[in-house]
Write a structure and sequence with these properties.
34% of the residues lie in helices and 25% in strands. It is α/β, with parallel strands linked by helices and 240 residues long.
Length: 240
């Protein structure tokens, strides 16, 4: 599904990721953990094509065996990559219905879009009044995260990258968000969860846990790796 080769990424001349090579398999759920500033979100942003992040000339990103490192974020999204943001932006004058209408045009009629959005909103306990307001304007942190997962559920991407979707949400919201993530699991979809905490693993069970430190993948394992980090800290798995 997603393959990164010799991925080195810098921002403003500062090197953040250092020569990472890894293959993310179709149908699998991955959790990426690591200390603050380790490069977790940079990896996600590089895959999505954030313009501020510069890739080394030998770095390759392949999505479904096609090189995408030179594609715009918009084209990557059209090909089936969705990334949620740590701090979702507000869009004045644009409702979630309007935001979804363009990418779903030709796939779903407006009435079906509206009904599906309402159904996911009910599942996520999003107040219906928020659906008709400017997206994320005046929303709480938890409401913004719910809106991100609602959009992902509507768009049904082939590659779903969730950057700290569990940060700033209460226990009940985390359960509902996790339920939608579990509903999105599919043999044809790869899911990557970036998190600081293992609590989401009480609800979502990954196939693989990766640890990034100092711009490199330093550990790989199963759920018990995340639990060990929660108990003992990153020093238990990061070799000095």
């Amino acid at each position: 599904m997603l393959e990164i080769k010799n991925l080195s990424v810098s921002i403003e001349e500062k090197i953040i990721l250092k020569n990472i090579t890894y293959s993310f398999k179709k149908g699998n759920v991955y959790v990426i953990m690591g200390p603050n500033g380790s490069g977790k979100s940079t990896l996600a942003s590089a895959v999505m094509g954030h313009p501020l992040y510069k890739l080394d000339h030998v770095s390759k990103i392949l999505f479904q065996k096609e090189e995408i490192q030179d594609m715009s974020p918009e084209l990557r999204a059209q090909k089936g990559i969705f990334m949620s943001f740590q701090s979702p932006l507000s869009l004045s004058g644009v409702t979630v219905y309007q935001l979804l209408r363009y990418p779903l045009s030709g796939k779903m009629d407006p009435l079906k879009i509206r009904n599906s959005v309402k159904a996911y909103a009910k599942q996520l306990h999003i107040k219906e009044e928020l659906l008709s307001r400017s997206l994320n304007e005046g929303f709480s942190g938890g409401e913004r995260k719910k809106m991100e997962i609602l959009q992902a559920a509507m768009l049904q991407p082939k590659l779903l990258i969730l950057d700290e979707i569990d940060t700033g949400v209460d226990v009940d919201a985390l359960k509902r968000i996790s339920q939608v993530i579990n509903d999105l699991k599919s043999p044809d979809r790869t899911i990557i969860l970036i998190t600081h905490y293992s609590r989401i693993l009480n609800h979502v069970h990954p196939d693989t846990v990766l640890v990034i430190s100092d711009g490199q993948i330093v550990a790989e394992g199963k759920k018990n790796l995340a639990l060990e980090i929660e108990k003992k800290g990153y020093s238990a798995v990061i070799k000095s």
